[in-house]
Amino acid sequence: MYKAIIFDLDNTLLNYTLSEMESMNRTLRDHDLFVEDEEKREAFWQSFLKHNFKHWMDFVNKTGSHQSIIDVLIRSFRDSLNMNHSHHVKLTHTYWDYFCNTCLYETGAEEVLHSVKSQYKLGIISNGIGEAQRKRLAAGKIDHLFESIIVSDEAGVRKPRKEIFDLSLNELRLSRSEVLFIGDSLTDDYHGAKNAGIDFCFYNRNGLSLTNEYQPKYTVSKWHELLRVVDL
Predict the structure, then answer these.
(1) EC (predicted)?
(2) Of 25, 63, 147, 158, which residue is the least packed, with the fewest Cβ within 10 Å?
(3) Domain residue limits, the chain
(4) Which fold has domain 4-15+105-229?
(5) Mean pLDDT score of the chain
């Protein structure tokens, strides 16, 4: 029935949470911060996540003075550490370089990608930063598998807006009924696919119980289950 499968990237194909954590741990080691103090390192990490989420949302919603992802990260380090500005800048560039070159898959994702590639066109629609998303795919040596990669900061539109899905359909040269979209977010991915009139497969990585408000066409909790959905 389908001719293409379009994937969300973070916490669908790639494990964003672990990528963030590994990149930060490497950054802290490089700068000799909290190396011997796990309790302080964890306290910093929780503070950073909180501040980073706020600054990221300000950046996404254009409600602050953040001009780039680098600004977001500098401010996140600033609000989490009592250091001078130059150190925040150095930490930011170290972290960003590690993150952009870290490709950690969701369990089973790489194998399933290679399995479905022979039968379907593949695409990506991601709410993220193009530099990071493309470099991470290249680091994992899977960038060549996708005939369409749409990233929100490059496209100027984000999920759940239907327009970002239209861009993918145009690049794949397919109609709405010919593609399946899989993602982990009920906010961005489910509603985005619904707005675009595209069948949605919910990657329920956290075992959520769905209310009647959400009715995806398919639900999988592990990657290999997608093969049954697409009859492979």
Answers:
(1) 3.1.3.-
(2) 63
(3) 4-15+105-229, 16-100
(4) Rossmann fold (3.40.50)
(5) 95
